[in-house]
Amino acid sequence: MQTPPPGSEPSNYPRQNLANDRQVLREVAASQRQILLCVLGQIGVAILNGVVTAAKMPSLAILVLIAILAVLVFMIMSVIRLAKALALSPVLYTILMFIPCVSLIALLMLSGKATARLSQAGIKVGLLGADPNSI
Questions:
Q1: What is the pTM of this model?
Q2: Number of H helices, E strands in the chain
Q3: Quick check: 89 pLDDT over 70?
Q4: d(CA 93, CA 110)
Q5: What keywords are annotated for this sequence in UniProt (predicted)?
Q6: How many Å apart are CA 89 and CA 81, to the nearest integer?
């Protein structure tokens, strides 16, 4: 097996596809932003549910239930998208979304993995993740 001389680019060795990697990083950044919005949505729905329960307003309870289901569907879609972008098992994380407190922890774990991946690539990650348009 021949090794290339130092300082020269090997021509017959596989090169990393930078355009494909950039697309994956954009997908990770967009999905992480959705995951963080899911965290905010889950907290907001929990607060809204507590207020409606304390006020004993059954007519608003149906609207809260619809909001909970909408957040759950958005969480599942976002988790599948981010897990696929990070090459993780989307089935495991999807199952975790149905367990109330565990789902919040799973969302934060996924967000942490996405932050590590983006930071490793040298992308600045803010409070709501990295801006996919800047990648």
A1: 0.77
A2: 4, 0
A3: yes
A4: 9
A5: Membrane, Transmembrane, Transmembrane helix
A6: 11
